[in-house]
Specification:
Layout: H1 4-16, H2 20-27, H3 31-39, H4 46-56, H5 60-64
Length: 68
């Protein structure tokens, strides 16, 4: 089962209408790392979480499931 972060990341990717490779380029993140986040195999560190939150214009609390 996917954790809250993984579910929300996948939802935001879908809502963005962008392909994973485009998001990776814009964030400066390796595709393999991003894929592991999408699949729930790993999670971002604090700096990466902040980067994702800023990119998708949500709070870190949203990614953590503390707010909707």
């Amino acid at each position: 089962m996917k954790n809250q972060f993984t579910k929300r990341l996948n939802d935001l990717i879908e809502l963005s209408g962008k392909q994973q490779i485009q998001i990776c380029k814009e964030l400066g993140i390796y595709k393999q790392k991003f894929s592991r986040w999408k699949l729930g195999k790993t999670e971002p560190n604090l700096d990466e979480l902040i980067l994702l939150a800023n990119y998708f214009k949500v709070s870190t609390d949203y990614f953590l499931g503390l707010e909707d």
